[in-house]
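Extended Data, panel c. Modelled sequence:
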Amino acid sequence: MPASKKLTWRRAIVYTAILALIAFALISRPHPWFFAAGVVLITVGEIIRIWGTGHLEKNQRLVTSGPYAHVKNPLYLGTLLIMFGFAASATHPGEVSIWVLCGLLPFGLACYFLYYFPKKKRIEYDRLRRRFGDDAEDYIRSVPDLVPRLTRFKHAENRKWRFDLVVHNSELETAALCALGLLIIGSKFIWR
């Protein structure tokens, strides 16, 4: 099994978080407006991830095409949007589910931004510097981590998006899990 297909601890954490939000959604009563906002966030997040994985050739080249021309970590950005989307889609103001937005979500974000993301940045950026030298240093210095810049990186490649890379980077499984989560949460409107 190729390394990209293995269940890594990072992928396990993401899948576990999504499944936990889906499980919470099963006992909550989502509000239509919050659900709609969640669908938009999840859809945008997954589009960003699919766009990013269609350019990602990890450890083979310094990826600066597609979304990487605007933001260094499009997959993390997409995951954050998906996380916010699931939290919103399962929420109903005035009920216990509001604690997802007011309690669990800030806790999860604090863990992410205070521990996980800084550690990943250090490891990944050091790896890029070792493999790609000054080109990586220029990219790391010029392109923002999570908030995309409007203009492209000055040395961005013009490579085409590739579906085979989406498959190789296991993004179809993430997209299917997101769709399943939305179906489960959305089905609560039918079963009321």
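The first helix runs from residue 9 to 27. This feature is highlighted in the accompanying rendering.
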